[in-house]
Structures are given as C-alpha cells and as structure tokens.
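Annex B. Sample input.
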Amino acid sequence: MKFEWRKQEKNLYIPKEKPELITVPQQKFLMISGKGNPNDEEFSEKIEVLYSLAYAIKMLPKQGDIPEGYYDYTVYPLEGVWDLSEEGKQSNILEKDQLIYNIMIRQPNFVTQEVVDRAFENVKKKKNHHLLDEVTFVTMEDRLSVQMMHIGSYDDEPQSFDQMKKFIDENNLEIVSLKHREIYISDARKTEKSKMKTVLRYRVFYKH
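Annex B, continued. Sample output.
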C-alpha cells in the first residue's frame, strides 16, 4: 500500500488552525541553503533542484534499482527553516533580502546517503543543474514544538505567530530561537492566496 503523509502523518502535516504542542521525531531531508528574497529566481531554482532529486529517489525502482526497504510513497511537501541576518534583525520592518533559509524535502526512512548518491547520478545524466552540488542530505530532530495550520497568504503569517507566542507563554514554554519552520501543504502556483495552507512551527522547551 502506498504511504501517504497526508493520511499516515496527519499530526505532523495537517494540524488544526490553533496552536498545539507536538514532539517531532528524527527525520531525513534533502536540503539546500540560501539568503535573500524568496520571490527571486534563485529561490525557484533551488526548489526545482530539490524536487528533481526527491523524484529521482522515488523513481529508482523504475530504473531497475530498488533500494533496500523501499516502499511506494507520496513525495513529501517542501519545508523551510527561516531566520534573519544580523542586519535584518536590527531593522524594524521585515526586509526579505535579509532572510536566511534552509529549504528541504523530507525523505522516507529507507533513504541513505548511498541511495541519495545514486539519485544524484541519475539527475546529472538528465540535467546537470548548476545548484545540484549545493544539496546536502541531513538528519534533523525538532523534538518538542508548537505548531498550527496557517490558512492564507504568507504575508499574514505574523497573526498566526502571535497566536503561537501567546500559547507558548500560557503553557510555561519558551522558544528555542526565533528561527521557525514552515511546511508548504499547498502549491503556491496553483492555490488562491486566501486558501493556502502552511504549517508553522517553533521549537520550544519548558521553563524551569
């Protein structure tokens, strides 16, 4: 049976539209880093190269290359961990050119560095993208986090962050850092802004 994150991992990807506490397990990602405005062409190119690798891994069996433990699955959604440069943190307004990001696509548990290397080779044969060598394979564990589903434009996210910070204060929690994670459930190219779904997440810990 095909593994579908929307069904099997609802707690991680389809939360409610109000803050909640969750423990995020260790996860594997294809990741690429950058700085600047996410509306720029370079950001789109980085997304493109991530997806080319993610689908190359999924399609390995069609090349006659079946990784150990492979199972059919739906490719995971794009995620981003966002921060600001020191200069950006000193500004009273959000300057998108000062954004620092790591964007990534989660990988199933069977994926190893060896599997990723095979996918790299397959992508290079088809199109040796100039950003390909900037992609890394990493393991991350966010652990205790506060998350909620944000419905609407990315520009309206501060309203949801305010709800999350209130929840954090009321539950004796503290944010690890002002970095936050976004998981893009909707395709921004095809979805009306008012209906876009984005999971927002802060890493937190309990105050002593």
